[in-house]
Amino acid sequence: MDNNKKLFYASCVALTVTSMTFAIRAGILEELKVDFGLVDTQLGWVNGMASFGFPIAMLLLGLAYNAVGPKKLMIIAFICHLFGLIMTIFSGGFWGLILSTFAIGFANGSVEAACNPMIADMFPEDKTTMLNKFHVWFPGGLVIGSLISYFLADSLGWQLLIATMLVPTIIYGVMIFGMKFPETRNLESNTGENIKAIMKSPLFWFMGICMTLTATTELGTTQWIERIIKNDGIHPMIVLAMITGLMAVGRYFAGPLVKKFNPVGVLLMSAIVSAIGLVMLSQFSGSMIYLAAMVFAVGVTYFWPTMIGFIGENLPKTGALGMSLIGGFGMFGLTIWNPIIGNWLDKERALALSLGETKEAAELIAGKATLDNIAVFPAILVVAFGVLFFVMKNKKTLA
């Protein structure tokens, strides 16, 4: 096996840890709420720290990539994952959760800051395809984390659920310490030129704004899945596992789709299907939730890797920094919207209770109303990507 493939597999294990942190945290929100006496708005701030640490890492380490290389960034990711997970296990309350979740978010951002440009550089002829295959392991890790939460939550407790993530963390740590990382060859590696290309490109900033909406559509829904549909007659972690399982399969076979429809066409279709899926989730109940979840999964499958691949292919002069920052935009948007999503739940629940609904009915009403609110994001993206599709129709490169 050549070195590039070994590095690709190590990157996939690291990304699996990243996504497991999302899934397992989604599965323990109710326990954190009870154990620490938190409200959903406070849970939103805790969730927000994961998405806040992410863009901070993407910005700082994206700037450092050309100078220090991907190996040192992966070592930073390993140390922060280890520290954040252990600190979460021994957290004593709200502020302990805030700090430890920030550390995990920083680790997650470090993984993407290192791996996205490294993979694009190692596979210059298939950037979007290989990035989609790499990002198979984000939903793949969500499946693993969801199933761990579903089968072991009652017997292990939330602290031991967090501890399960130490196993793949140590695995990828051992892998990266023993590997040789490549020199940058196929990306613009002058940081000054990267910054100049970013600053003068309206397209980059347009895609950055869109990335805040694509990320919140996907992760704003899946991170809150337990709180949003827990009273809908189905188990949220099974729904999450199904959504992310479909996403993993879709990303693995993304190559022919991207080549046939081009990245912008894929993004436009994704926005349309995501909006439909969220509306279905807000309207359906019981077993029909599974159908709605499948539609939603198809919609969000290609958002994240295709956005990053689009930057790599169409704005190559932005280099590793551009690919890092576009992911940072996504998580920064999620940081802003996470507490707002939590507040939507709190407000809608309080309103339903004031109208005489039972606690269980109020929870369900709040979740449905929140899904309706989130559906606005992909609806905006339909317009944005529709305009971009027609603008780019006859253009081959914009940088």
Can you put this structure into words, describing what you see?
- The chain is an all-alpha fold.
- It has one domain: MFS general substrate transporter like domains (Growth Hormone, Chain: A, Up-down Bundle), CATH 1.20.1250.
- Helices cover 83% and strands 0% of the residues.
- It has 19 helices and no strands.
- The longest helix is centred in the last third of the chain and has 36 residues.
- It is globular.
Largest sheet: none
CATH topology value? Growth Hormone, Chain: A
The rough form would be described as: globular
Structural class: mainly alpha
CATH architecture field: Up-down Bundle
Mean pLDDT: 88
CA radius of gyration:
20 Å
CATH superfamily: MFS general substrate transporter like domains
Low-confidence runs: none
At the first level of CATH, the class is Mainly Alpha
DSSP strand content:
under 5%
Total helical segments: 19
The count of DSSP E runs of length 2 or more, i.e. the number of strands, is 0
Portion of residues in helices?
over 70%
Give the arrangement of secondary structure elements:
Layout lengths: L2 H25 L1 H8 L3 H29 L1 H20 L4 H29 L4 H8 L2 H20 L1 H6 L2 H12 L13 H9 L2 H21 L2 H5 L6 H17 L1 H30 L4 H13 L2 H12 L4 H36 L4 H16 L1 H17 L7
Helix pairs in contact: 1-5, 1-7, 1-9, 3-4, 3-5, 3-17, 4-5, 4-9, 5-6, 5-17, 6-14, 6-16, 7-13, 10-17, 11-16, 11-17, 11-19, 13-15, 14-15, 14-16, 14-18, 14-19, 16-17, 17-18
